[in-house]
Amino acid sequence: MAARARSAEETPARAPVDVEAPFLPGGLGPALAFDPSWCLVVGEDPVHGAEPALRRARTPDWSRVEQSLLCVADGVIGTRGVLEEEAGEDLSAVAGAGYYEPAPGVGDRLAGLPVWCDLPLVRDLGSGRRVLDLRDGVLTRTVAHDGDGAGEVGFSSARFACAERPGTEVLVAELSTAVLAEALSADALSADALSAGAAPTLRRTAGGGGAAMARSTEVRAGGPSRIVVERVATYVASAREVPAPSRAAEALGSAVGVGPAGLLAEQRARWSERWAAGDLEVAGDAEMTRALRFALFHLRSSASWRHESAVGARGLSGPAYAGHVLWDADVFVLPVLAAVDRRAARSMLQYRLDRLEAAQRRAAGEGRRGARYPWESATTGDDVTPRSGIDQHGKTVAIRTGDLEAHVTADVAWAAWHYASWSGDWAFLEGPGRPLLVETARYWAARICYDDARRAHISRVIGPDEYHEDVDDNAFTNLMARWNLLRAAELVERPRAAPRKAGGRVDGSAPEGREREEAAHWREVAAALVDGYDPTTGRYEQFTGFSRLEPVLVSTLGTPPLAADLVLGHDKVAATQVIKQADVLMAYYLIPEGTAAESLAANLQYYLPRTAHGSSLSPAVHASLLARAGRCDEALDLLSVARAVDLDDLTATTAGGLHLANLGGLWRAVVHGFVGAQVQRPDDDALVLDPRLPDAWHELRAALTWHGTRVQLTCRRESVRVVPDAPLTVQVHGARARVEPPGRWIG
Amino acid sequence: MSPTHRPAESSEAPRRRRRPPHPRRGARAPEHAVAPQLLVLGDEEALRRWSVAVSEATALVGVAPSLIERSTLTSARDPVQDTLTLARAARGPLLVLPAGDPPAATSPRRDRVLVPVDGTAEEAAVLGPLVERANRHGLGVQQLHVLCETTVPVMWDGPGHHATAWLSELRRRHQVGEAVLQVSSGDPASAITAAAAQADLLVLAWNGDDAAEHAAVLRALLDQGGHAVMLVPVPRS
Q1: Is B167–A394 a contact, with Cβ atoms under 8 angstroms apart?
Q2: Across the strands, what pairs with A230?
Q3: What is the CATH number of domain B25-233?
Q4: I need a labelling partner for B13 at 20 to 30 A (CA). Which of A186, A197, A309, A393 fits?
Q5: What is the interface pTM, i.e. ipTM, of the complex?
Q6: Interface touch A652/B183, C-beta < 8 Å
Q7: So what's the pLDDT on residue A520?
C-alpha cells in the first residue's frame, strides 16, 4: 500500500492528532473526560508530548508488559491488551477462569481460548496511544497513520469485557482503508472477510470442560475512506462439561440485540456501581490513586459471581504460574473482594469448597484425617505443584513447596472466616463453610506430634519465607494452625441456628456430641502447640534454630527489594537470617488477635532488617504493618515499591501477567494499614477504624462495604468522616459512635 | 515491538537510508577526525589470522598497531589503558585483535561469537542488529547474561513458575534470532572470561566509562589476552 512504500524521508511531519477525542470510535458514544487518576496511558502522546505514563524506557521490549497491564476481563474471560493485528497469533491472548489444559511438567495450565478481537490490519501500524479507563473498563487505542490523510487518526478502537454479562466481549473500531492489511484492499473489503471464523469455535479443556465462542462482526461505512467494524463475541464455558456451541450463539444473539452502545451503557452502569462499592483515593496524589484503582480494577475483573471462581496467581491477565490457584487468592485477593464485592468473594470460596474432597483425599493419602489443601490447585483440586522446575540458569532443580508449604490449609480456612467477618455472614460459616473449617482443623490435629513434655509440634514445613526449607515449628504455620483449630472449635461449640441436615455430610462429621469432644481436643492441641514466642524479647522465633543462623542483615547485601537467594545462592542464604518475605509478620497481618499483645513493634524491628522483599508479596504486607506500628512514612515508602511491582515491571515477569496478590496487598495496606479498618469476627458489632496517615498525605478516601452497609470514609490526621448508606456503628481510635446517613465527621 | 526484535526488513530500512556510504573495506582511516565504523586494533598478521571473524563487518577503517605505536596513546605504556582510551575516542566499534597465535580452543572457522548481555534497552538497541547480522551469516552466537549485584532481578520468587516466566521474558527481550541466550551468575568478569574460552570473538557493549568498576570485564579480557574483542559503544544511560 502507498503508506508502507513511502520512505522515511518522504514522510511528512506528523500533525497533531486528537487522541482525546470527545467521542469513542464508530459512533459508540461520548468518551469519558480524561482523568489521570482514572486513566492508565501507554504509548505515544502526540498531542501533549508528555512522558508515557509508564516508565518503560529501561527495557527493550515492553509490549507484553503492556498486554498484561491493559487486560480487560469480566471474571470469566480475560483478554490481554494485544494489538488487534497481532491478536490472532497469540495463543495466550484470551483465557477463561478455571479453564485448564494438561501441560507437561506443570500439571494443568490455563488454556488459551479462541481469540475474538483480531482484525486484519497492516502489521507496522504501531501500537499508538492506548488508554485503559478504569471507570468503565474500556480500552481505547488511537493510532495516527502516515497514509492517506496524513496526520489523521488512521485507526481507533474501543474494547471492553462486559462486567454485566461475563463472557461477552465488545470491540468497535474505526479505521481508514489505508490501515487494512494488503490482503484486504478496500475493493475487496467485505463483512465476510472481517467476519472470518464467525462460526462458533469450540475448545475442550482439562477436566472434561470446554469453551465455545461465537462472534458477530458488522462492517459499515464510517465516512470517506473510513469504515467501522463492530464486533461482539460471547463465550460459554464450563470447567466440568463441554458446552454446546449453540449456547454461545444464543448468548451472542442476546448481546447483539442490545448492540455495542447498549452494552457500553450497561458496562458503565455496572462499573459505576462497583466503584461506589469500593474505591480508594489519595487526595492530591493522582499517581498513587491511579495505582490503587488499577489494583482494584484488576482484582474486580478477576472473579465473577458465578458458581465458583478460580483466581490464579496472575488472574486472567497472563499465563504465568500456569493459572494455578495459590494462597495468593485466599489471603491477598479474597479480602479485597470480601470488602467490595462479597458475591465474588463467595464465588472464590466456592472454588475451595468444591475441592474439599480432593483435600480430604490428600490428607488421607498421608494417613491423616481432615483436609489438606494443595499448595497449587487447578481443575480438580489435586496438588499440581511441580516437583521440579528450572532455576535462573535454566537448570532443573527440585521444588519442595508442594510437599512442605502446608500453611495454605490454614490460609484457606482463614479466607472463609475473613469473608464471613467482612460480610457478617454467619450463615455461611454454619452452612457451607463449616466443613471447610472443621476438616482443616482435623488435619492440623492429625498433623502435630507431641514431645515428651506434651508440647505439640509441626515439623518439616516451609513457611512463607521460602529461603528456608524443611524447617520445624515455623511460627507462622503453627500460629495459623492454632488459629484454625480454635476457630473450628468455636464453630462446633456454637449453638446451631438451623437443624442439622439428615444424611451424610461432606465433612463426614460425627454426631454433635462427638464433635464437641473433638472440639475440646482441638483446643488442647492449640494450647499445646509451640509458637516460638519468647516473652523476654517479645519476639517469635521464625522456626526452631532460626536465631542460631548467621545474623546477616539485608543492608549488608544491598538495598532491598533484593533477590538475596540469587545474590548469595540457595545454600548460603539458607544459612543466614535473611528472609524472603514476611513470615512471623504474616501472622500479625492475618491474625493479629492470635499474636502476643503489643509485640508487633519488637518483631517488626527484628525481622524487617532481615527481609529482602524478594517476593512481590512482601512490600505491601510490610507497608500495612508499618502503618499499624505508626511508622507511616516508612510504610509509604514500601507502598510505593509495591505500587511499582507491575506498573514498573519490577520483577521483569509482569509480561506473564499481573501479580494479583500484590495488587490485593496494595488495597489491604491502605485499608488495613492506613485506614486501620479491622475485622475479626462475623459478629463484630462495630467497624473498627484507626486512621494513620503518612506526612505526604493529608486526606485519604475509601469506599467499602462492611456487613452489607456501604460506607465512604474520608480520613484526615485528626478526624474521619463516615458516610454510610444505612445506620452504622463504628469504633474510631477506640471510641464507639453510631452514625446515621448522611454521615458525619468523627474526631 | 522493540527495534531489536522487529524483523530486519521493517526496522532497518529507514536506518539504511540514513547511513553514510560505506568506505571500502580495508581503507585506512584518514585520522581520528573521521569517525570510523569499525576500528581494528592489531597488526596485519593478526588481521589475517582473524579475518574470518571480522569478515562480516561493514567496514574496516584503520589498521593498527601503528595507531598505538605512533600516537600519544602509547605514552601511558599500559596496553589495556591505551586500548580503553582509543575505544573511548572512537565513535564506532573497535575490534581488538590479540597478538600471537589464537588460543588452542579457537575454532578453525572463527565462527563462534560471544555477546554478553546486561539487560538494558540501550545495549540491546546497539547489539541486537549486530547479532542479527551475525545470525544471517551463519555465525554461532551465544548471548550471555550474567546475574550479579547490578543485574540480579529486584524480586525473585524462586525456581519453577517464576524462573520460567522470567527466563522466557528475558529471552524474548534479548535473545536475537537463532542466537542462544544463556544465564550465569557471579562476577561478570570471571563469568565472561570463562565463557570466552569457547568463543572466537566477543562483542562487548561499552559505554566509554573506564572507571575500574565499569570496565572490569574489558580489563579482564584484555589482561587475559588471546581474545578478539569487538567493543561497541553505547550511550551512557
Answers
A1: yes
A2: A172, A218
A3: 3.40.50.620
A4: A186
A5: 0.91
A6: no
A7: 97
